[in-house]
Amino acid sequence: MPKAKSMPPGAAVATWLTTADKSVLFQPQAGTLKFAAAKNANPTIEVDEAKTYQTIDGFGYCLTGGSAELLHQMGPAERAKLLRELFGTEGSNIGVSYLRVSIGASDLDAKVFSYDDLPASQTDPELTKFSLAPDEAHLIPVLKEILAINPKLKILGSPWSPPTWMKTNDASKGGSLKPEFYDAYARYFVEYIARMKAQGIRIDAITIQNEPLHPGNNPSLLMLAEQQAEFIKKSLGPTFRKAKVDTKIIVYDHNADRPDYPLTILNDAEAAQYVDGSAFHLYAGPIEALGKVHDAHPEKNVYFTEQWIGAPGKFAGDLAWHTRTLIIGATRNWARTVLEWNLAADPQQNPHTPGGCTECLGAITLAGNAVTRNPAYYIVAHASKFARPGSVRIASTLPDKLPNVAFRTPTGQRVLVVLNDGAAAQSFNIGQGGRQAVATLPAGAVGTYVW
Predict the structure, then answer these.
(1) What region holds the Glycosyl hydrolase family 30 beta sandwich domain (predicted)?
(2) CA torsion sign, 196 to 139 to 85 to 314?
(3) Are 285 and 421 in a shared domain?
(4) What's the burial of 234, exposed, middle or buried (CB within 10 Å: 0-12/13-18/19+)?
(5) Annotated active-site positions, please?
(6) Helix (H, G, I), strand (E, B) or coil at 301
(7) Which domain holds residue 433?
(8) Which of 27, 298, 313, 429 is deepest in the core (most CB within 10 A)?
(9) pTM as predicted
(10) Rounded alpha-carbon distances, angstroms, from residue 290 to 130, 157, 193, 335
(11) Is 344 helix (H, G, I), strand (E, B) or coil?
(12) Domain holding 29: CATH number?
């Protein structure tokens, strides 16, 4: 590893700030901090770019079908302005670089659907009725507008349920995938990826099932770890290989309380040969479980793919918890992505399926063309704008009450995201290469420092 570079005298640090009381919301701060040979009694966050960890794929949101519908119903000029704000990188735009979409409906679509829905008792193992028509109404047009702004944006696809005719209970909610339809379902993924590609939308990765241990959502599917391993090694992996599909296969996509689930698959060499890594949510379990899965299989990647904020949201608490636990905690435990849940909802947290989430607060609330920015907007912004795809996490020390994470960007900048987790304002040093810059954060505030 190369030695950390010393800071030249007077090197400047730009600061972007969000405060717990919302008096400052992701704003660049006047003036810049300077690196110097400072000596004081402040705690120091020492950044060491000689110690490197995972590469970052991106920070962003889940673009649910409902989110896309609300965006698509905006006026064209208003939507273009908002999408530029979300996905552009210039000025005060926040540079979202990664999206998760649902393969078929999620519970935050207006209705349940798959891409091969049939009357009861009919089957279609050859997928002759496969159609992306439900997504052509809103999701695909919005994705095309987003990709025109950021063509390098990466997209993860996750199904909430296969077509009901493939399931043991013939219903959108619950049930399991019938083994006789493993091959057909593998081809369903291939067909989805190919048809999206034909629309100019590359699917970088898929997970096999959203929350496979939560069959109570609508739509949903129960898929135990042994079943997922069997599906991968007998059907999905060989089908992807035969079709020369380079979309990554990511397992699990559920809570950190069950690391045994992805480990069961990664310990199965026949299945693991097809697997890029594991995805996690955090409605249960500790964020450190991600690091333990990485440590057991350092050759496989780790992703954080979903976390909601419950409406109406509590700005100070949400800002602190999500920054501490996800933006900082997930990346310090090897996550290549951090994705908040739904990008957009209306003021009543609609749309959603019957039985779907009724309290999922969007990163933005859309009432026609009126936009309200909620906690997840700012939480993601503090990382997405600066820790661009291809950035590498670098080492940084952890003084008490100052959780943080540091990155080196592809252009050679250093990025440090810091939360003041204390009850009072705190001055601290950013240290690198023998020099220090003195910063101060109000209680509960988040600062991103770039130099």
Answers:
(1) 390-449
(2) negative
(3) no
(4) middle
(5) 211, 306
(6) strand
(7) 12-53+396-450
(8) 429
(9) 0.97
(10) 36, 20, 28, 7
(11) strand
(12) 2.60.40.1180
